[in-house]
Design brief:
With 287 residues, the protein is an alpha/beta fold. The protein has one domain (2-286): TIM Barrel, CATH 3.20.20.20. Helices cover 37% and strands 15% of the residues. The protein contains 9 helices and 10 strands. The protein has helices spanning 37-50, 71-83, 112-118, 136-144, 169-186, 206-215, 234-240, 249-261, 272-286; strands at residues 2-4, 9-11, 17-23, 54-58, 104-108, 125-128, 147-151, 194-197, 227-228, 266-269. The strands form 2 sheets. It has an 8-stranded parallel β-sheet with strand order 8-7-6-5-4-3-10-9. The protein has a two-stranded antiparallel sheet with strand order 1-2. The longest helix is centred in the middle third of the chain and has 18 residues, at 169-186. It is globular.
Length: 287
């Protein structure tokens, strides 16, 4: 299985990729964001040194209890980082021959105007939490050769959807991805440039999230890499009674191990060092 981006070709099965989170905002749910681009560059460099294969940069928190920022503000926050991305790895050596290097750059946005402004600067992956409500972002990714993350959710981002119930969450996911992959193809996006994200914690109940973790392997039938943004998720806090997201790294590692057993190709995390060590260890054990 090939994942093709504007600057990389990555073949699976292989050691799961680690996607390090960089938040250029001051209201991240995990408290690790900053509006200082120098700090963002330094954080990305630390993540690459620790083994990150992908850096996922975003400027707007997905928290529903925070007001959205304007498109202009989002572009303003992201542009300096994207233009200076090479500084994140220029003086860094890969940890081994399996790390994707130079690392891929993922842009975490759901707004087409933001995407169109930044894609010409060099983006490998579009991490869209908008559930592909229309094909605008798929068409833009296709035009610039970027890969696209299709994430399952319901309704618009930044709006709480705690009330949503599903008769069968796995059947819902399978039906959703079947239709969205077809929509992306109609927009001109190659299947080789599609990544699937089940949307843990997005418009889902605790039981839904836990079932997704247990049965995630069912999504492998689509033949596309699965991205699991498992890091410090609310469902981990609920299971372990840990209200502070920064206390959830052990639970995150447990979910990574379970995800590898289900065939997950990419893990999106805050603590890259711990995740990279876990991924490398599990894949060594599995051979």
């Amino acid at each position: 299985m090939l994942l093709r981006t504007s600057r990389h070709e990555v073949w699976f099965p292989r050691r799961s990729l680690v996607m390090g989170i960089v938040n250029i905002n001051d209201d991240s749910f995990s408290g690790d964001g900053s509006l200082d681009v120098e700090q963002a560059i330094a954080q990305a460099q630390t993540s690459v040194k620790a083994g990150a294969d992908i850096i996922d940069v975003g400027a707007e928190s997905a928290r529903t209890n925070r007001a959205p920022i304007s498109e202009a503000e989002e572009i303003s926050r992201l542009t300096p980082f994207v233009t200076r991305f090479a500084e994140c790895y220029a003086t860094v050596a890969p940890i081994d021959e399996k790390q994707v290097f130079p690392p891929m750059l993922s842009l975490n946005t759901w707004r087409p105007a933001v995407l169109r402004a930044l894609l010409p600067l060099g983006i490998d992956i579009v991490n869209d939490i908008g559930a592909l409500a229309n094909t605008d972002n798929a068409a833009a990714a296709a035009e610039y050769g970027a890969a696209l993350v299709i994430m399952h959710s319901v309704g618009e981002p930044k709006v709480p959807h705690f009330h949503v119930q599903y008769p069968d969450i796995m059947e819902t996911l399978e039906d959703f991805f079947e239709h969205k992959i077809a929509d992306a193809a109609k927009a001109g996006l190659s299947q080789e440039s599609i990544i699937l994200d089940p949307g843990i914690d997005f418009a889902k109940q605790r039981a839904d999230n836990l079932r997704i973790y247990r049965e995630l392997g069912r999504l492998n039938r689509f033949g596309r890499p699965i991205l699991l943004p498992v890091s410090r998720k609310t469902v981990i806090g609920e299971v372990l009674n840990l209200p502070d997201p920064k206390d959830r790294d052990a639970g995150t590692i447990a979910c990574i191990v379970a995800g590898i057993q289900q065939g997950v190709g990419i893990f999106r995390v805050h603590n890259v060092n711990a995740a990279s060590l876990a991924v490398r260890t599990v894949w060594s054990v599995l051979g």
